[in-house]
Amino acid sequence: MSSPLKYATFCIAGLGAACGDEGSDLAAPRPTEAPPAAAVHTALVAPAIALSAYSLWYCYTPGGNRMCVILKRPLRVTSTGTTPLKWTATSNNSWIVVSPAGGTTPTGVTVSIDTRKLPAWRPVYGSITIAAAGASNSPQKVRVIVNAVGHPLSALAFSDSAIGFCFMPSSTRACVRLEEQVRITSVGGTPLTWKAVSSAPWIVVQPAGGTTPTDVRVFVDYLPPRNGATSVSGWITVSAAGASNSPRTIPVKLQFYSQPLPQ
Staple partner for 103: which of 107, 212, 231, 260, CB 3.0–4.6 Å? Predict the structure, then answer.
């Protein structure tokens, strides 16, 4: 006598007979019929850009009390799903600086404000656009807000826009001018703490730093080699944190004469 057949009964919801429904004939298996295979459906979802913030707020009220100075904010660029995204960032204003301006997710980004390029002393607005090929929600925008009300930026100002020296090696000394005085001031806002650097060692600035207003002595420390030229040139760079036009340069020229100047 042959052994009875044994069956394993599987119930797949939505396929064939209902699971556990009364009246269904689960006790009468049909060994010659295989149960239908369950269909497997895989949903393919494109990755999406995800940002840690969609609005960045800054403030800049320069002055002695430094009441509010926030010029850098972090931003994290990530992606949903398992596929990394290559992204790029562009700003719609030159005063918004994004570093780095591109990469592969996930990436930490610093968004800074260049105060020298802020257009006005009131709340100003800009945006950053982040795009990634293959992202389902590309591009994404981040709003940038800078509150700079109440304290306009100071600007560097000089009594001379250029400095000219002359030297004629002659007993008549018709033209020997190797020293000038320049006044460094600030226009608007508050006093500025500045520093000066010359482009050549023969150009000396004393003092090389201070707080506006300051009278500065600029002189020729020694005669540089001219190699047959009738003049040599250089410049002084003056920079000040918080100045709208920092850094500024003052051209310096030393003129040589081989003959006495006309009287």
Answer: 107
The span from the CA of 217 to the CA of 204, in Å, is 8
Neighbours of 78 (CB within 10 A): 17
Q: 45 burial class (0-12, 13-18, 19+ CB within 10 angstroms)? A: exposed
Residue 205 amino acid letter: V
Predicted confidence (pLDDT) per residue in 122-181, tens digit: 778 899 999 999 999 999 999 998 987 655 567 888 999 899 988 876 645 567 889 999
**Cα–Cα nearest to 235, from 164, 174, 169:** 164
For domain 49-147, give its CATH number from 1.10.150.170, 2.60.40.10, 3.40.50.300, 3.40.190.170.
2.60.40.10
Provide the 3-class DSSP secondary structure of residue 117: helix
Per-residue pLDDT tens over the stretch 67-97? 678 899 999 999 998 889 999 999 999 999 9
49-147 and 155-256 in the same fold: yes
What CATH number is given for 155-256 in this structure?
2.60.40.10
Go through the chain and tell me how many residues it has. Answer: 263
* Domain residue extents for the chain: 49-147, 155-256
